[in-house]
Amino acid sequence: METPAHDALPTPAQQALDALVANAEDQGALDTLAHSDVLVPVPDDALDGEGADATTVALPILEQPGGDPVVPVFTTENEMAELLPFVSRYRLIPLGALASQWPDEEISLAIDGSSEHALTLTSQGVRTLLAR
Q1: C-alpha Rg value of the chain to the nearest Å
Q2: 94: region left, alpha or beta (phi > 0 left; psi from -120 to 50 alpha)
Q3: CA 14, CA 10: separation in Å to the nearest integer?
Q4: Closest Cα to residue 40, out of 75, 11, 13?
Q5: Residues paired with residue 38 on neighbouring β-strands, in sequence order
Q6: Residue 71 in contact with residue 60, Cβ under 8 Å?
Q7: Which sequence spans correspond to the domains of the chain?
Q8: DSSP H or E run through 13
Q9: CA-CA distances (angstroms) from residue 16 to 10, 22, 58, 129?
């Protein structure tokens, strides 16, 4: 019996997300997640300025239904296409590096927001759990 592509085995990052849903203190899962690369969507209308600093990333901020701002990142292209089919570009960034530069405002981080592996962290959670 063949397995459909969307039923593929979870990536190490997705396995870590699953582990953190069960136990938010799982240090092994936090380490795996912090060292995993995530896809940060780049809106098609974002300018590619020649003077842009390659070490900084403009975070795409969406408003959740409750009005709280959230930055969506994804573990795979398929996960990104599920939630943001209109975005065709992204930057691949280690999650720990993204967390170490997290803004002070109350902005949450949603990882794989529409999937069964979804995890949302508060801004404090991003800075304390993932910035290693």
Answers
A1: 15
A2: beta
A3: 5
A4: 75
A5: 93
A6: yes
A7: 9-43+59-130
A8: helix 12-22
A9: 9, 10, 26, 13
> What is the residue whose two structure tokens read 């969406």?
62
Beta strand 108-111 with 69-73: parallel, antiparallel or unpaired? parallel
Alpha carbon distances (Å) from 22 to 16, 26, 29, 73, 98: 10, 9, 11, 21, 24
Each of the 132 residues of the chain gets a pLDDT tens digit; together they read 444 445 578 889 999 999 988 888 899 998 999 899 999 998 765 555 444 455 567 788 888 777 789 999 999 999 999 888 988 899 999 998 888 888 878 899 999 988 888 988 888 888 877 665
For residues 2 and 74, give the distance between their C-alpha atoms in angstroms, rounded to a whole number: 26
Looking at domain 9-43+59-130, does it have CATH number 3.40.1350?
yes
For residues 34 and 31, what is the distance between their CA atoms, to the nearest angstrom?
5
